[in-house]
Write a structure and sequence with these properties.
Elements lengths: L2 E5 L5 H12 L5 E5 L10 E9 L2 E2 L1 H8 L5 E8 L5 H12 L7 E9 L4 H13 L4 H13 L5 H18 L1
Parallel strand pairs: 1-2, 1-3, 3-5, 5-6
Antiparallel strand pairs: 3-4
Helix pairs in contact: 1-6, 4-5
Pfam family, one: Flavodoxin_3
GO molecular function: electron transfer activity; FMN binding; oxidoreductase activity, acting on NAD(P)H
InterPro entries: BilS, Flavodoxin/NO_synth, Flavodoxin_CS, Flavoprotein-like_sf
Length: about 170
């Protein structure tokens, strides 16, 4: 059994999850670890990780997933908004719907991740323009709560996700 871990990370959040997955996989099974590459497609099981963009995996990761055929897949993601399992599942389900049907999705995992400083600046600019709009206060509070993520609990949950995937393929 060959395993690939393919991921894209803008702020380092998804890279942290990829490293957490790698830490619990048998090293002799690891075939490829890195950004999207055709070489990764030679594995039997592919862990695919992404940051989220408009409620989906990033476009480069969607393009990679479109190339996957007859593979066992395990999806993982980070997103700036968070702490709501329903939201995470919606992202994973929308992404799964774009994957060719001949693949088997074994499991998925998502957690909150910190956002770029530019996001906070955009929220602050909008709040200054609309000081009575509670939306901007809420978004700024979420930004602040995301700063510590992924945290140790997120990483432990991600590792359990990877262990669970391994039990499904044995």
């Amino acid at each position: 059994m060959k395993i690939s871990i393919v991921y894209q990370s803008l702020t380092g959040n998804t890279r942290q999850l990829a490293e957490a997955v790698q830490a619990v996989l048998p090293s002799e099974m690891l075939f490829y670890i890195g950004t999207p590459d055709a070489e990764a497609l030679k594995a039997d099981l592919i862990f695919v990780g992404s940051w989220t963009d408009k409620g989906l995996f990033s476009q480069p990761m969607l393009d990679f997933l479109a190339q996957c055929h007859n593979k066992s897949l395990a999806l993982f993601a980070t997103c700036g908004f968070g702490q709501a399992e329903e939201y995470y599942q919606a992202i994973l389900q929308r992404t799964a719907a774009k994957i060719p049907a001949d693949n088997l999705i074994l499991a998925s995992f998502a957690c909150q991740g910190r956002m770029h400083e530019s996001v906070k600046q955009r929220y602050q600019t909008m709040q200054a323009k609309e000081p009575d709009n509670p939306r901007w206060t809420s978004l700024l509070e979420n930004y602040d709560s995301a700063l510590s993520h992924p945290d140790n609990t997120d990483l432990q949950r991600c590792q359990q996700f990877a262990r669970d995937v391994l039990t499904k393929i044995k």
